[in-house]
């Protein structure tokens, strides 16, 4: 047996021995009686054992898809480690690789033997966990949605634990350029094997993708007739457009078909100087003068917008809204001329007039109401004539020649189609 060593501190009946080298140490105790005489001696042997400590270092939870390496810190040096536990795939001295495929809590044990023959043991529990499945909580998701773990039902073994927070999703943002598409999202723990996760098919909706719907809502041109009287019907730009389309919506109960669109009218006219001929004069006057032509001007315009929408996520049915107005101002002017200039002189003969035309549309629950108002356009003025055969006598005529009769149109109903 090796000879050890140590030190003694204290005096009297009680002392403290501290060993510093492993081995056997002999301690001599001498006692001298109070009355004197020869002391008696006693020898006591103490075995100083070698100090042994061992501890497994590491993080003691892991997914079954990823092996972990652990190591043991041991004192004194130069000893040997012996590992034990289900799931050890390899070991090298005081290092071990642990790769159990069985979820649950399992013990990993290391026994350390010192060079002097001492032993010590450390045991740690390793939690192995597995991702079994994931399902989406929603029936669908809008394109561009950012996904988090809270969007899914997560099934693991064990069923609960903070380790679930380390699940990653790929991709985290889902999108599609189709109306409806299935996108695979992968949930996994961090593992060398990229195929170790679970695939989750989710439905992604892009409501911005529309398919044309054959819906054509007709808006009447109530201004065409009065403009025809002025010869300007073809000068009015009356542009009617229907843009309706089907699209998908992501609702609480899943994807639903929806439809929306707009009927719009953009109208404008800008005529500076249009000549209109063939304006009849009263019979009593046309024997003296003629109105060969008048100048017409018109300007204005406006827009109408009617929108319809049937939301698949709603039970309210089709909703229509919108309104608009087109307003046009027109004016006319001309001058009468004498038929026989040598006999008749026109002292005054300017005729003028102006008017406004209006069409308005208002959407209601099941139809749109179109109304039109035509203010009358009349050439008005005084014609004063003089003849050279009658000295000093003037003939005066107050004229009012209708070009457009004033009229308030009856309401025109435009029924809305079922969407």
Oligomer: single chain
Helix content: under 10%
Would you tell me the overall average pLDDT?
90
Largest sheet: 9 strands, antiparallel
Any idea how many domains?
A: 4
Class of secondary structure makeup:
mainly beta
Low-confidence stretches: none
Total number of helices: 1
The total strand number stands at 33
Note the overall shape: rod-shaped
Q: Quote the beta fraction.
A: over 45%
Distance between the termini: 102 Å
Output the radius of gyration. 53 Å
Secondary-structure blueprint:
Layout: E1 5-9, E2 16-21, E3 23-31, E4 40-48, E5 53-57, E6 61-63, E7 68-75, E8 80-84, E9 88-92, E10 95-98, E11 104-113, E12 119-136, E13 141-142, E14 145-146, E15 152-157, E16 168-170, E17 173-174, E18 180-188, E19 198-205, E20 211-212, H1 224-229, E21 237-251, E22 254-277, E23 289-290, E24 293-310, E25 318-335, E26 337-338, E27 344-348, E28 350-363, E29 367-374, E30 377-387, E31 394-404, E32 407-408, E33 412-415
Parallel strand pairs: 6-12, 13-19
Antiparallel strand pairs: 1-2, 3-4, 5-7, 7-10, 8-11, 9-10, 11-12, 12-15, 14-17, 16-18, 18-19, 20-21, 21-22, 22-24, 23-26, 24-25, 25-28, 27-30, 28-29, 29-32, 29-33, 30-31
């Amino acid at each position: 047996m090796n000879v050890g060593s140590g030190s003694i501190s204290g005096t009297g009946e009680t002392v403290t021995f501290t060993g510093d080298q492993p081995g056997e140490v002999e301690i001599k105790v001498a006692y001298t009686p109070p009355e004197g005489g020869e002391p008696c001696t006693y020898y006591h042997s103490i075995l100083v054992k070698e100090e042994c400590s061992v501890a497994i270092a590491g993080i003691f939870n892991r997914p079954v898809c990823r092996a972990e390496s652990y190591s043991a810190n041991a004192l004194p040096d130069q000893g040997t480690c012996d590992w034990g536990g289900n799931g050890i795939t390899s070991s090298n001295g005081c290092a071990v690789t642990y790769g159990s495929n069985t979820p649950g809590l399992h013990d990993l044990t290391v026994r350390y033997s010192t060079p002097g023959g001492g032993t010590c043991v450390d045991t740690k529990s390793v939690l192995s966990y597995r991702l079994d499945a994931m399902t989406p909580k929603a029936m669908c998701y809008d394109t561009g949605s950012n996904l988090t773990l809270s969007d899914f039902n997560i099934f693991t073994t064990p069923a609960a634990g903070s380790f679930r927070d380390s699940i990653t999703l790929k991709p985290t943002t889902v999108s599609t350029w189709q109306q409806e598409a299935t996108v695979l999202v992968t949930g996994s723990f961090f593992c060398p094997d990229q195929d170790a996760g679970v695939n989750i098919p989710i439905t992604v909706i892009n409501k911005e993708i529309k398919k044309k719907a054959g819906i054509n809502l007709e808006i009447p041109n109530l201004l065409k007739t009065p403009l025809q009287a002025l010869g300007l019907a073809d000068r009015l730009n009356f542009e009617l457009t229907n843009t309706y389309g089907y699209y998908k919506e992501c609702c609480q109960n899943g994807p639903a078909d929806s439809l929306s669109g707009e009927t719009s009218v953009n109208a404008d006219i800008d005529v500076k100087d249009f000549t209109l001929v063939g304006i009849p004069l009263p019979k009593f006057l046309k024997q003296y003068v003629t109105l060969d032509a008048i100048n017409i001007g018109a300007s204005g315009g406006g827009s109408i917008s009617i929108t319809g929408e049937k939301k698949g996520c709603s039970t309210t049915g089709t909703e229509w809204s919108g309104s608009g107005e087109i307003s046009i101002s027109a004016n006319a002017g001309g001058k009468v001329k004498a038929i026989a200039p040598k006999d008749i002189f026109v002292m005054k003969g300017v005729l003028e007039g102006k008017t406004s035309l209006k069409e308005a549309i208002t959407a209601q629950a099941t139809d749109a109401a179109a109304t039109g108002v035509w203010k009358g356009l009349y050439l008005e003025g005084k014609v004063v004539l003089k003849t050279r055969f009658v000295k000093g006598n003037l003939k005066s005529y107050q004229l009012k020649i209708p070009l457009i009769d004033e009229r308030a149109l009856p309401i025109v109903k435009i029924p809305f189609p079922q969407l």
